[in-house]
Amino acid sequence: xxxxxxxxQYEPFNEQEEKDREVILKWLAMDPDxxxxxxxxAAHLTASAWVVNPAKTKVLMAYHNIYDSWAWxxxxxxxxxxxxxxxxxxxxEESGIREVRxxxxxxFSIEALCVDGHVKKGEYVSSHxxxxxxxxxxxxxxxxxxxxxxxxxxxxxxxxxxxxxKSSEPWFTEHIYRKLNEKLIKRYGRKI
Length: 192
Prior knowledge:
Radius of gyration: 16 Å
Order of helices and strands: HHEEEEHEEEEEEHH
Number of helices: 5
Distance between the termini: 34 Å
Largest sheet: 8 strands, mixed
Number of strands: 10
Structural class: alpha+beta
CATH architecture: Alpha-Beta Complex
Low-confidence stretches: none
Oligomer: single chain
């Protein structure tokens, strides 16, 4: 099943996902060829991961340089249409985790995210939209961690409720990370 078909069948968790699904589907209908690359400078596909430990009590995050905040892991598709593989690759690169597995190959969450203009690797990147697909992954927290110096300062595991304290991005904390934890709890019956 391709991404468009999967998103058409996807059941939004809340209004944010409902509206963002509409946005992503419109972009897929308008410009399916360049969305998987950064050639479309207005909007492109990204994949993120909500990485949890086997007990579903901890989340793996990285301290991102650009946003100066603890955040989820993920990155650009850069031509790869297998967004689950993109999410897993980004987790390995950004955290040093070698063994990570999907709890499901289905989309866990969707987001259309505004990215402010910024400088990356000495070059200005204009404001744009990340049409983001999130996957729920699992990893053993005993694995050694390292950071990717050009992207983040550290990687660490946090209790589910700590995520809200560690992130310095209020909108992400309230609308994305809280949603991801709620979906995790709903699916696996854990309580914070």
